Amino acid sequence: MTFTLPPGLALQKVDERIMTLNVGPQHPGSGHMRIIVQIDGDYIVACDPDPGYVHRGEEKMAEYRNYITNIPHLERPVIHDSCNVLYPYVLGAEELLGIEVPERAKYVRVIASELNRCIYIMYWLAIYGIFLGHSTMFMWPAGDRELLIDLMEKMTGARVTHAHFVPGGVRNDLPPNFEDVCLRQVNYFEKRIKEYAAVFYDNPILISRTRDTGVLSRQDAIRYGTTGSVLRASGVDYDLRVKEPYDVYDELDVHTNVMKEGDSYARSRIPWLDMIESCNIIRQALQKMPKSGSVRVKLKPNPKTKGLESVYKRVESGRGSLGCYIVSDGKVEPYRVKLSVPSFRNLIALPNLLKGEKLGNMPSVYWSLNYWPVEADR
Amino acid sequence: MSTETENPPAAAKPEVKTPPKPAPKKPEAPPVELPAFEKSISDKIIEKFGDKIEVGFVKEDRVRINVGRENVHEVAEFIRDGLNYDHVESVSGVDYPQDNEIEVVYHIGSYSESSLARQILVLATRAQRETNPIPGNDATKLPTLRDVFYSVEFHEREVFEMFGVYFEGHPDNRRLLLPEDWADLPPLRKDFAIKGR
Fold this sequence. Notes:
A: alpha+beta, Cytochrome-c3 Hydrogenase, chain B, three-stranded antiparallel beta sheet, 17 helices, 8 strands, B: alpha/beta, Beta Polymerase, domain 2, five-stranded mixed beta sheet, two-stranded parallel ribbon, disordered N terminus
């Protein structure tokens, strides 16, 4: 076996010095996955990610259930981003079944989707904080996340797994007085997360640990087909809410956050900027939303599609572009459902980013990829 | 695509004596106007490859190209070099036991070409399906596109373990998601049934 060693290391007998280290799957620094790293002293010389410990066969299960009963289990890959992970499936099913969604439902979906994005990113940020040994950054997001979870609870009735989006709209209309509560909470939330800059993002310790580690060049980010915050941290201006707007995103003013550095610091800062942008989007949506009207087109039981067709829909989730490819053969169940998930797409960058890094930088590089193991495995 | 055709219900019940109603006159469907930009993409591919490819559909933001397994590599190279698509978003296998084929669908997008930001090019090819598969050692094989699009590496590994489609030339055809001791059929094939269903 040959290894590319970091510069400055000239070795006579490579094999005797290389040690193989299994990080995970039961390790707080990896989540439900294993990363097999080979280290030479303190430097990683090779890395082989081994996902699959939480593979649940969501795609197979989807072939046995109809378009409506697929909803609760297809949001399981990322339960705290459940609206977004379901979004492309619902959009695809609507196109196949030929349903027009009421205007108000589209706005409710956008609000739910943006709230969910913040909830996801707060969870991710909490873990990123504790990975780096920054306990305050674990406690603060975990606590402030509750504000938005309470909002989602008011909206959907469930705190985490909402199952709120259905083909034809959303399950329920907003509760009375929701708009005012939502505006107040979101304004407070935005003020609150801006305080994170002083304790976390401007913290010299964080900067020294994440600056210039795991640098992903713009060219490589495109070549690996990465997406979401990883792509935008490498200087590619690509956000599906702007580039391929779905539902009512074309009527809203969405700003794409881009950074040029491509290091762990940029990758950890982009999601935080995205949360502030989400607050802007929610405020716009609350303002432009029709004040009354239907939010759901009722479907007949067991709706059928027209015949053999396929559809590929994608949305911008908390981690990046999330695609859903549905093949239908005119029966009540889809013939094939494939989720193309951002975590799985970003995983390919991991071995290339870790090569030549110090072992101590592994958590900061790994989690900055905005990776969610359960989603990657499906 | 599938060869399934639905029989009209009148043919299934020949004993009904009532004279068949005259079929309601369908309003003349207006000639479908294909979106111009998408049409220009498919035209470029047709111009280059002619009969080797077949255009599956041209819809808004989506163009589908069906191609035989012997030409898929060549077509993918043209899509990258001639049309500026630069990454693969998704590689999906779809099992068609009635055709005795397994379809592999690449969804290809572009970050670097701003006019293609909305576009997804769907490249579909088909591999021969084996009734008793021995993954890696039977005729279910396709050329890999990993040397054309680096981003397919993990996606093709997933298709290999889930459908048994071996990608010739792929540098790393190990298992990715399934357990190491999995000894059953590739699980996303249609003949692998969930227990109790």
